[in-house]
Amino acid sequence: MCGIAGLIHRGKSSNVGSEMTSVLQSLKHRGPDSTGFALYGSPTENQYVMRFKVAEQEDMNRGFDIHQEVVARQEEVDKRLASLGVNVINKKEATAYSHRYTFGFGGDMKKLADYIEDIEGAEILSIGEGLELIKDLGDATVVSEQYSLAGFQGTHGIGHTRMATESDVDIRSAHPYWAYPFNDVSVVHNGQLTNYWTFRREMERLGHRFMSNCDSELIAVYIANRMDQGDDLEEAMTRSVEELDGVFTYLVATSDKLGMAKDVMAAKPMVLYESDDFVGLASEEVAIRSIFPNEIETFDPYEGEVRVWQA
Amino acid sequence: MAGVEHKSHDMELHTEQLSGRTQQRFFSASEEENFTYPWANDVDFDKVADFDAVEMDPTDINLKIRELLEQGYGTITIKNPRAKHGVGVGVLNRANITFEGSLGYFGCGLIDGPNIRITGRVGWSCAENMMAGTVVIDNNAGSTFGAAIRGGDLVCRGDVGSRTGIDQKGGTIIVGGRTGAFSGFMMQRGRMVICGDAGKNLGDSMYDGTIYVGGEVEDLGVDCVPGEMTETDLKWLTAKLSMYDIAPACGVANMKKFVSGKQLWNYDNLEPSEKKLVL
Question: Domains in chain A, start-ordered, CATH in brackets?
Fold first, then answer.
């Protein structure tokens, strides 16, 4: 089933970490397996944030040497970043297997991503100037506390509560997906794509990598590829509604935009609340209301509808 | 059932025989006609109660409504439902019930008899399998609005999502605004009135029933065809819409009517291969 949500503050920052935690916790019943956040903070010029993991959560309970292995993997990450000339500014260990680095880098980001992900167990969750992508097993409150998201200030964010249906219960298959290797683009999705393999093969032929067999990852790569071809976000999303088959509703966020798209049959839910300075979307109205104590007017976007909002 | 038939004749609806519980309508809370549930509570409509649901979960809200009905309260107001799911379901009693706020998914489903007003919005599948009574929503509604309703009047003054009245088996659905794609999908009986525009595939695979549209229709689904608007239709539409103070922008006289072409395989004994030739 899965639950998705997104919010964007127009022209101001807010505590999007707490807001998204509250919204996603309200959607826990739609997917208790994992929870993910893509939060957009204030970018620092010429400085990137990289979130990555060097093992799955469940790996930490296996084998006698895993704790030494994840340390060794992180050291290998450091070594490879240094060899590429990356200027690491700050390192933070979110969990034993998940890290947050800030760095300066003027080279090829795809090469950097490929080189890091070549390390056993390593997966880059996100790279961006504003984007921070956090996902792990458990509900929103658990993940938010684990990664200290309560005070995260930013303009917008998207998130996902997952009920695993077509792939495993692990971080790799959890949403949101970063649109490798494009900075600051992330996607959450509720639904199924029926022409997944057709487009995955096309994207792979173009050189894009897939870390999972989850159809949601395809949307992230598809959108990023279209934008790389020259489409703006709205054009890329409109084309996706025409080309991707299946039943789906998805949200995309970039450094300064939030977009939503529904398939032509409108078979997956989405409720929208819009005011002059705020837009909130969620699979269920109860999620939006978790951050609004008063009555609000909401509505369902229609079939095939694509909308994009600016922060 | 005599009273029901009499009503249908009053409204010149001789062409559609209205019979059975599924076709009963309770336009007024005090109307006792044919309400025969032996276990229904004898309520007093002047006996008024209200409670705040902000801290209650859906089960407790529904149990509280039932408890008040058992105590004879005929007019009940529930404040702050806050879009919770499955609220107001399974009310098999005549009563005036008002929700001050919005309901989530499957609100007011499986009801038979009450007159319900929702001052906010409703999520997916509002009044699913409703048997009789009225449900009036002041704001918008989500998809699968009135799925499989058997009777009663289901009214949304605003816009609704897709698949409105999917599998509708009777009763009346009224939409003050527009409706999304696949409205009237597999409709079997009853009437749907859409004052605004209708999305694509209107009435797809409908077996029977009637759909009236005031605005533009994006396109018709398989086996949904334009019907001839008669004086009976106009009288019925005027009477029915005036009950809820709703009027299409184009005027009732300019509404369009759609019915089933009855060319689908289930209406004759043609083999599927032969049916393809017909369609």
Answer: 3-43+136-310 (3.60.20.10), 47-128 (3.30.70.1110)
Interchain contact B196–A (C-beta under 8 A): no
Average pLDDT over residues A71-92: 96
- Nearest-CA distance from A302 to chain B in Å? 6
**With contacts defined as CB-CB under 8 Å, which chain A residues touch B124?**
269
pLDDT over 90 at B19, yes or no: no
User: Which of chain B's residues have a Cβ under 8 Å away from the Cβ of A265?
Assistant: 162, 181-182
Please state the φ and ψ torsions of residue B30, each to the nearest 5 degrees: -90, 0
Extract the tokens encoding B136. 């009036």
Can you read off the two tokens belonging to residue B204?
């797809």
Asked whether A164 and A173 are in contact (CB, 8 A), the reply is yes
Q: What is the pLDDT of residue B270?
A: 58
CA-based nearest residue in chain B for residue A268: B143
Sequence ranges of the domains in chain B: 166-279
State how far residue B121 is from chain A, nearest Cα, in angstroms: 7
Give the C-alpha separation, B132 to B25, whole Å: 6
B192 beta partners: B173, B211
| Euclidean distance between CA atoms A231 and A141, whole angstroms | 37
Confidence (pLDDT) at B276: 61
DSSP-assigned beta bridge partners for residue B75: B48, B96
pTM: 0.87
By C-alpha distance, which of A207, A226, A221, A52 is closest to A126? Answer: A52
- pLDDT(A105) > 90: yes
pLDDT of residue B21: 38
Mutate: best of B99, B121, B138, B182, partner A, most A CBs <10 A: B121
Calpha distance B128→B5 (Å, rounded): 25
| Residue B200 contacts A, CB cutoff 8 Å | yes
Distance CA B159, CA B197 (A): 10
The number of C-beta contacts closer than 8 angstroms across A and B is: 67
ipTM score here?
Answer: 0.85
Tell me, what's the pLDDT at A71? 95
For residues B25 and A253, which has the higher predicted lDDT (pLDDT)? A253
Of the candidates A266, A269, A286, which has its C-beta nearest B83's C-beta? A286
pLDDT at A295: 81
pLDDT digits (tens, 9 = 90+) for B27-78: 444 455 545 567 788 899 999 999 999 999 999 999 999 999 999 999 999 9
Cβ contacts of B200 on chain A, cutoff 8 Å: 303
Chain A residues with CB under 8 Å of a chain B CB are 264-267, 269, 271, 284-286, 289, 295, 297-300, 302-303
For residue B84, which residues of chain A lie inside 8 Å, CB to CB? 286
- Looking at residue B252, the DSSP 8-state letter turns out to be G
Q: How far is B188 from chain A (nearest CA, A)?
A: 21
Average pLDDT over residues B244-249: 96
